[in-house]
Automatic annotation (TrEMBL), chain A:
It is a multi-pass membrane protein. It holds the Pfam family BPD_transp_2. It is found in: Cell membrane. The complex is composed of two ATP-binding proteins (LsrA), two transmembrane proteins (LsrC and LsrD) and a solute-binding protein (LsrB). Keywords: Cell inner membrane, Cell membrane, Membrane, Transmembrane, Transmembrane helix, Transport. It comes from Shinella curvata. PANTHER family: ABC TRANSPORTER PERMEASE PROTEIN YPHD-RELATED-RELATED, AUTOINDUCER 2 IMPORT SYSTEM PERMEASE PROTEIN LSRD. The chain crosses the membrane at residues 28-49, 61-77, 109-128, 173-194, 226-248, 254-275, 282-299, 305-325. This is Autoinducer 2 import system permease protein LsrD.
Length: 334, 327
């Protein structure tokens, strides 16, 4: 027993170098996929590389991507919000109603944001206050919010938005860069900083990895989750303002089925659907990929529903391929 | 009274009866036996689907692709009938059921063999199956005049005064009761949902059991595909769009825990009936049919809140017993 020796041994912080990790990362794979799609598109259609066409193409994904940022945080924290598309519908309906009452653009924006925040707060209260599973709660509020929109509108539509309001969906900040695209970039930066550089971001990861441990290390789990649902509501409201301004009208079926596209975007971006991991750059890349695929197929006259097959296959295969790859490598090393 | 409230199924029965009384005050003919039979018949397809979904949810999974599966199987059946009107209807039903089972098994295989989270798998296959209907039909509708009379007549044929559709759902309920309570597979669903790790040690193959649950939900979705298309005598890309949420709602209202392991055939059936009564009652009591979505949303939220309270109470009782044993 006495001659047991302790040998000093260097234990590295990381098993791989920074560069090796970067090459093997999900984001690198996404960049490769995005480049491939970009190349295929530019060869397949001569109209793809036109700056104005590309600018138009950004409208395919900017609104969904704004929600995807907040959704990414919610999913990383181990929850999900399926009511986002219904929040868009309700927010748009309330703004349309306010137009009938004679409110002008600044008031409309304020009313829209408040509606979104209230919807988010309702979700957040049910999930954190009553400790209910978010997937069922938001399936319920998904019906409720869009149902309220149907109740207010029936088979009618709200139109007649002020001309200054349409700038949010149709305006350009500089040259080909639309307001929506600039907002998308700004939000990407903000969410990137919040998730990757702040205590709040660390708390989100901590909750997603082990909620009990997070609670015991002093993270206010309930409050963080409540804020996340508030943020999703706010983002859905911002997306709703952009979308309503772009379309110039509100129907109860506005943004129908978007929740699935937003979740697809987030998962495609490498966020673990079970929570605990994921990055904002990944979500940005996934948004670009989905936007380019939709736009490229559109130029080739592929119907929208066929694109959705492709998106579905993409969703399953990007998750399945790494699993298969890991399994294959595991087998070889044994 | 306390015992009554503790039993979920009884609570739902009371809620449905209360609902019927409220409706009867406004519109008495609604509760006539003949009309109630119609309401049941109208809810039959939802009941069949909810039973399939229940099996999946019990194993801690979810099947969002059921409505898309239904639409694809239904479209295949309708196109088969339109192309070969001479084909016997039972054969067409068999094709629809087999197709549904195959689509369900794809979900199951992805969950079992690749370990992809169920919500991601079925979110993906939901859009893929919907898209395949478009590829299959080219976006065209199959209308009533393109379907043979035998194809449309089967769910409407009456036996002992009730439509065959109602009888079929009763048969499926009976089969599911037996499967859930009297077979190893049914016990495996519950055991796996209750505690997957413990289930492994009792010799249950978790992946395989989940696969079988998806096969079951797919089979029932395929059958419902034929029933839906023949009952409404039309098939197009968007039939039953969004219905997957109604199916899950029926289960949640029926007390099936989304966390797995808790639920019953009776609960799922009553949950579906609750939604069916609301859906059929709104137009006759002069509430805008547009209110239906908002109401079912409220019902889901209330149901899940009540469920959670019931489940929590169970946990507390166990804890108290343990404390008593220590003391």
């Amino acid at each position: 027993m006495a001659d047991v020796q302790t040998i000093a041994r260097h234990i590295p912080d990381r098993l791989e170098s920074r560069g090796a990790r970067l090459i093997k990362s999900w984001e690198t794979l996404l960049v490769a996929v995005a480049l491939a799609i970009f190349l295929v598109n530019s060869f397949a259609s001569p109209y793809f590389l036109d700056p104005w066409n590309l600018s138009d193409a950004t409208f395919n994904f900017t609104e969904k991507a704004m929600i995807a940022f907040a959704m990414a945080l919610v999913i990383i924290s181990g929850e999900i919000d399926l009511s986002v598309a219904s929040i868009i519908a309700l927010t748009s309906t309330v703004m349309g109603y306010a137009v009938q009452l004679g409110f002008d653009t600044p008031a409309l924006v304020l009313i829209g944001l408040t509606t979104g925040l209230l919807c988010g707060a309702f979700n957040g209260l049910l999930v954190t206050g009553l400790a209910l599973p978010s997937i069922v709660v938001t399936i319920g509020t998904m019906s409720l919010f869009r149902g309220l929109s149907f109740l207010i509108l029936g088979d009618q539509a709200f139109t007649g938005y002020p001309a200054s309001f349409s700038w949010f969906g149709q305006g350009y900040v500089w040259w080909v860069f639309s307001f929506e695209f600039c907002l998308f970039v700004a939000l990407a930066v903000i969410y990137g900083i919040v998730l990757h550089k702040t205590n709040f971001g660390r708390a989100v990861y901590a909750i997603g990895n082990n909620q009990t441990a997070a609670l015991f290390s002093g993270v206010r789990v309930g409050r963080v989750k409540f804020v996340l649902f508030l943020l999703t509501g706010l983002m859905a409201a911002i997306a709703s303002i952009c979308l309503t301004a772009r379309l110039g009208s509100t129907r109860p079926s506005i943004a129908l089925g978007w929740e699935l596209e937003v979740v697809t975007m987030v998962v495609l971006g490498g966020v673990n659907i079970l929570g605990g991991s994921g990055t904002i750059p990944g979500v940005v890349l996934a948004a670009l990929i989905m936007g380019m695929v939709t736009f490229g197929f559109g130029l080739l006259n592929v119907p929208g529903i066929v694109m959705s097959i492709f998106i579905g296959l993409l969703l399953i295969s990007v998750i399945a391929l790494p699993i298969l790859y890991r399994r294959f490598r595991g087998r070889r090393s044994h | 009274m306390k015992l009554l409230l503790k039993n979920r199924e009884m609570l739902l029965v009371v809620a449905i009866i209360a609902l019927l009384v409220l409706i009867a005050v406004r519109f008495p003919p609604f509760v006539a036996p003949g009309n109630l039979a119609n309401v049941y018949n109208d809810t039959s397809i939802l009941i069949i689907l909810a039973l399939g979904q229940m099996a999946v949810i019990l194993t801690r999974c979810i099947d969002l692709s059921m409505a898309a599966n239904l639409a694809l199987s239904g479209m295949a059946a309708a196109m088969l009938n339109a192309a070969f009107p001479g084909l016997p209807v039972p054969l067409i039903i068999l094709v629809a059921v087999a197709l549904g089972a195959a689509l369900g098994s794809i979900n199951g295989l992805l969950v079992w063999k690749l370990d992809i989270p169920p919500i991601v798998v079925t979110l993906g296959t939901l859009t893929i199956y919907r898209g395949l209907i478009f590829l299959l039909s080219g976006g065209a509708w199959i209308n009533a005049h393109q379907m043979s009379d035998a194809f449309k007549a089967l769910p409407r044929a009456t036996l002992l005064g009730f439509p065959l559709l109602s009888w079929l759902s009763l048969v499926i309920i009976a089969i599911m009761v037996v499967v859930m309570r009297r077979t190893p597979l049914g016990r495996a669903f519950f055991a796996l949902g209750g505690n997957p790790h413990a289930a492994v040690y009792t010799g249950i193959d978790v992946g395989r059991t989940r696969f079988l649950a998806y096969c079951l939900s797919g089979t029932l979705a395929g059958l419902s595909g034929y029933l839906w298309v023949s009952r409404y005598a039309v098939a197009y890309v968007d039939i039953a769009a969004g219905f997957e949420l109604d199916i899950i709602a029926a289960c949640v209202i029926g007390g099936v825990s989304i966390a797995g392991g808790i639920g019953s055939v009776g609960g799922a059936v009553l949950g579906a009936l609750f939604l069916g009564v609301i859906k059929n009652a709104l137009p006759v009591i002069n509430i805008s049919p547009f209110a239906q979505m908002a109401i079912s949303g409220m019902v889901i939220i209330i149901a899940v809140a009540v469920n959670a309270r019931a489940e929590k109470r169970k946990g507390r009782v166990i804890l108290r017993k343990a404390e008593a044993a220590h003391g």
